[in-house]
Amino acid sequence: MSASFDPQIALLKSALRYAEEYLTAIDEQPVFPGVDALRALDQFDEPLPDAASNASDTLAMLHRIGSPGTVAQVGGRYFGFVDGGALPVGVAARVLADVWDQNTAHYVMSPVAARLEQVCEGWLTDLLGLPEETAAGFVTGTTLANLSGLAAGRNELLRRRGWDVVEDGLYGAPPVPVFVGQDAHAAVRKSLALLGMGDAHTHVVPVDDQGRLDMDSFPPLNEPALVVAQAGNVNSGAFDPFDEICAHTHGAGGWVHIDGAFGLWAAAVPSLAPLVPGISDADSWAVDAHKTLNVPYDCGIVMCRDRGALESAFRASAAYFQWSDERDPMRYTPSMSKRARSVELWAILKSLGREGVVQLIEQLCAHARDFAHQLDVEGFQIHNEVVFNQVIVSCGTDEETKRTLAAIQELGECWCGGSTWHERSVIRVSVCSWSTTQEDIRRSVQAFSKARQLARTH
Ligand SMILES: *Cc1c(COP(=O)(O)O)cnc(C)c1O
User: Fold this and answer.
1) What is the pLDDT of residue 216?
2) pTM value surpassing 0.70
3) Which of 73, 140, 143, 150 for mutating ligand 1's site (highest number of atoms within 8 Å of CB)?
């Protein structure tokens, strides 16, 4: 007799019931867990049980203690980091994909995942207006997507000089000059370090008041360089001048990689075209689907104009590998085994369509402008041009800003993080979820004002 999946089906039904309870109550749950919910997490601290226990009790415990210990990121009033919500069709598709439990290293492990990757590769290339031949690899996030694009670029620049990094390593290789904007994301620095191109060899180009790479400060290039541009400054949301950066870099035979974790999606939106001239002239791009596009975590994508360069960076062989004439997903990523994250990405692109994607992104931008406007009316200071989904806010003094932020986080009505901007303490607002409504913005602005009042009186 074969194994019965009845217990699994029963557990999935329980999970769905818990999911229903969770989503129905999300509006009342504090956006960050309260003291009691955090204390309850101590119940997880027990020695590894010796004996097995009932699976449905385990799931019940996870819901009872775990659900209140979550950050309500899928609700409408979470504006922390640049995190993104999760569109319903993506979550549902993911549940189905989880039941399939596909490993997607090779085509023969999952024809459906390989085909959906191929479809998404074509759709994304089209949607973002990238060169038709662009290849895509599906990874955990933009950190890995940056690593992948930069690996492809570094190796290709060295290959043109007769050096094969996969064969010969980096010892003794001719140095590849690297240029990044002063506001490059920490993930870019991390990737460069992992790739053996550390801080000491990275030239930092100054930025303007919005955090855009300043072309007047970009030194002339007289050899092929690896240049990293940014679509979406992590504080201000600003976009680098891609057309000028690409012309400058390509003039000397270099490679341009764009970190577009949340901002690359602007390239899909006709009304945002003025932000991204020349974005398709780059050589590689990194983007997160789990941020602006609201695909459930985790889903990052590396896109590379030169398919061969991307494949070459990740080449590997073993006697037991099963290459096929179809797409073998592991050709395009550092990982071999990985889950089928193309499933929920496909479901979201299929159900939104081009117009739905445009509408989603325009809605996030409109809410950000509205948020900034209402805060301005309440007497808060706005520090950036709100060109995308990011708003930088402060009160009168750094001290008041810090105390206000602490009070916002404690009130639990909404959640934002802090940062430093031009040497001032600021509050970062990132409007990132499909589920944010005008009412959520209004309630959040009220929470800001109340928090500032608390900060002033205590
Ligand atoms: C979020 C972000 C990253 C890192 O992406 P992960 O998905 O967290 O790995 C890199 N660059 C920018 C601009 C980001 O916003």
Assistant:
1) 98
2) yes
3) 143
